[in-house]
Specification:
There is one protein chain. By secondary structure, this protein is mainly alpha-helical. Helix content is about 60%, strand content about 5%. The chain has one domain. A two-stranded antiparallel sheet has the order 1-2. The longest helix has 16 residues.
């Protein structure tokens, strides 16, 4: 399953936000009820700024680092079952 469409080896802000909205709701289904998508978009916007280091586009390298960081936060160890 391909989550991102790399055009010119980068991901657009729109694509990043839309994909991370889906990921957030999968990881935390309760967010659908507690917050509306506008609140989540604000949080993801902060993540975008952090992950892009202020750039207008997300490079593949920065995206890989961001996804690794997300996986690290959501797991307790290094086993593939987690």
């Amino acid at each position: 399953m391909q989550l991102y469409n790399f055009k010119n080896y980068s991901v657009s802000k729109y694509e990043y936000i839309q994909t991370h909205l889906k990921i957030a709701c999968l990881l935390r289904p309760d967010l659908k009820e507690q917050h509306n998508h506008e609140d989540l978009k604000k949080i993801i916007e902060l993540d975008w700024r952090h992950d892009t280091k202020g750039s207008d586009e997300m490079t593949r390298s920065n995206l890989e680092k961001a996804l690794f960081e997300m996986a690290d936060i959501w797991t307790t160890g290094v086993e593939k079952e987690e």
